[in-house]
């Protein structure tokens, strides 16, 4: 059914996103077996240039990215809520892990922002669509996107500060070593 009706697929994506964020921790792991089906649907809907079809393609890519991120980084819960200590533990206090985590978060953020942009580009800005049923249907998933983005932005800033401080420690250590040889 979700292969034949773009609006139904859009609603499926919204509910699936909520499950990935707020469902049982095993939802992400158990959903990975359907990753190929989601990728096929994304390619299928991607052939449409406008309307819900194009949005479904973008949303399905985001959901796949979300699942892959959480499988690679199992310490991050679906809703992305972590303490600073948990974030440190996720990077195992290794600059390389912090760098890799930052890159993965930027990729994840890019997918989130692509959906945001796609939704807003699909709206008719000449009239107030946010009060119509169709407008509400298109805008509703952005709540999940905003919740994800707020955590991802926060964590990337913290990780960038960590990387900056690691870099200054590393370069200070290298400068001290170089002065020994001079």
TrEMBL record:
The lineage of its organism: Eukaryota, Metazoa, Chordata, Craniata, Vertebrata. PANTHER family: HUNTINGTIN INTERACTING PROTEIN 1, HUNTINGTIN-INTERACTING PROTEIN 1. Signal peptide: none annotated. This is Histidine permease. Residues 1-77 form the ENTH domain. PROSITE patterns: ENTH. InterPro entries: ANTH_dom, ENTH, ENTH_VHS, Sla2_fam. It comes from the Eukaryota.
